[in-house]
Amino acid sequence: MKANSAASLRGLYAITDSRLSPGDRLLQHVEAALQGGAALIQYRDKTASTVRRLADATALRRLCRDHDALLIINDDVDLAKRIDADGVHLGGEDSSLASARKRLGKDAVIGISCYNRLELAQAAAARGADYIAFGRFFPSRTKPDAVQAHAALLTTAKAELEVPLVAIGGITPENGAPLISAGADMLAVIHGVFGEADIQAACRRFTRLFEQEERPR
C-alpha cells in the first residue's frame, strides 16, 4: 500500500520503542497494536544494528500491509527506500525534506517534527510535507526535555495549513480527546501503547476517541 490521502493520515499513530518491545517481541506488539486499530506504525530504533533494523523493518512492512496500515520509518530515508516503506518521519536534525522526496518519490508520506513552532510548520507545508507533528503536549518519558506545545497551536495550525496534524508527547486515552477537538488528525503514542500490559485494548481506547469525535453532535 502506498497512499498518502488525508483519509489514511488519521487515527492512532503508534511509535515503536526498542526498550518496550525488545527483540522478538516487536512483531507481536505491533500486531496487537494493529489489531487494536492503529492506523500508522512508526519504526523507531536508535540502537539496533543495520542488519537487525533491516530485518525488523521488512517484517513490519509485511505486517502493516496485511492490516492496511501505513509503515513510517523514523529518520532513515535509505532504510525506507530499501524496504519500500510508506514513508519517513524527519526531525529537525534529520535529512532534508527535499532530499527525502527526491529519494522516495512523490507518493511517499513524509512527516516533519515542528515541535511548538508554527513557522516551522508553515515552511514544511510549503515544501510539501504530508503531515506536521507538534509536541510534546504532556510530560514525556521518551523525551522529557522536549519543548512544551499547547492545544491552541493545533487550532491555529488547522486553520492555516492544509496538511494533517500529529500531536505527540505523553498522550493517553484520558488526555487525548481535547487534542483531537483542537485539530489533531493523529495522536502519536509510544508508552501509552507499547508500555501497556494489554496493547490491543490500549489501542482500542485511543481509536474510540476518534470515533467519538466523528459522531454527530
TrEMBL record:
Q: Name the chemical reaction catalysed here.
A: 4-methyl-5-(2-phosphooxyethyl)-thiazole + 4-amino-2-methyl-5-(diphosphooxymethyl)pyrimidine + H(+) = thiamine phosphate + diphosphate; 2-(2-carboxy-4-methylthiazol-5-yl)ethyl phosphate + 4-amino-2-methyl-5-(diphosphooxymethyl)pyrimidine + 2 H(+) = thiamine phosphate + CO2 + diphosphate; 2-[(2R,5Z)-2-carboxy-4-methylthiazol-5(2H)-ylidene]ethyl phosphate + 4-amino-2-methyl-5-(diphosphooxymethyl)pyrimidine + 2 H(+) = thiamine phosphate + CO2 + diphosphate
Q: Which cofactor does it need?
A: Mg(2+)
Where do the Thiamine phosphate synthase/TenI domain residues begin and end?
12-193
What is the stated purpose of this protein? Condenses 4-methyl-5-(beta-hydroxyethyl)thiazole monophosphate (THZ-P) and 2-methyl-4-amino-5-hydroxymethyl pyrimidine pyrophosphate (HMP-PP) to form thiamine monophosphate (TMP).
**Protein name per Swiss-Prot or TrEMBL:** Thiamine-phosphate synthase
What the record says about family reads: Belongs to the thiamine-phosphate synthase family.
Which residues does 4-amino-2-methyl-5-(diphosphooxymethyl)pyrimidine bind?
42-46, 74, 113, 143
GO MF terms, alphabetically ordered? magnesium ion binding; thiamine-phosphate diphosphorylase activity
Q: Carries keyword Repeat?
A: no
- Judging by the UniProt lineage, the source's domain of life is Bacteria
Statement: the UniProt record of this protein carries the keyword Transmembrane helix: no
Q: Name one GO biological process term.
A: thiamine diphosphate biosynthetic process
Positions of Mg(2+) binding: 75, 94
Residues that hold 2-[(2R,5Z)-2-carboxy-4-methylthiazol-5(2H)-ylidene]ethyl phosphate according to the record? 140-142, 170
Biological source species? Candidatus Thiodiazotropha taylori
Q: Name one GO cellular component term.
A: cytoplasm
Q: What keywords does the record list, in alphabetical order?
A: Magnesium, Metal-binding, Thiamine biosynthesis, Transferase
Q: What does the entry comment about cofactor binding?
A: Binds 1 Mg(2+) ion per subunit.
